[in-house]
Design goal:
Layout: H1 5-16, H2 20-28, E1 41-47, E2 50-55, E3 64-68
Antiparallel strand pairs: 1-2, 2-3
Helix pairs in contact: 1-2
Length: 78
């Protein structure tokens, strides 16, 4: 999960290139977060293949983050 779409694209590119340092930097800069599987979220926006969700519980409660649609377990209707 990332704070914006640009950070998501950068994270994806770093992972695709096997750039572990680049991935680590994105997390260290606070632009990406690992959220536990099953964390309750509220979908608040969507764009192409990403959903913007509000985290409703846990360590990142109240944060708004972008996540790929396929990682959200309930079906999302546009």
């Amino acid at each position: 999960m990332t704070i914006d779409e640009d950070s998501f694209d950068e994270l994806l590119a770093a992972r695709y290139a096997n750039d572990e340092i680049g991935v680590e930097m994105i997390y260290d800069e606070g632009r990406a977060f690992s959220v536990k599987i099953g964390t309750e979220v509220l979908v608040i926006d969507h764009h192409d293949y990403l959903l913007k969700v509000r985290i409703l519980e846990g360590e990142y409660e109240k944060q708004a983050l972008w996540v790929p649609k396929e990682l959200v377990s309930k079906e999302f209707d546009n």
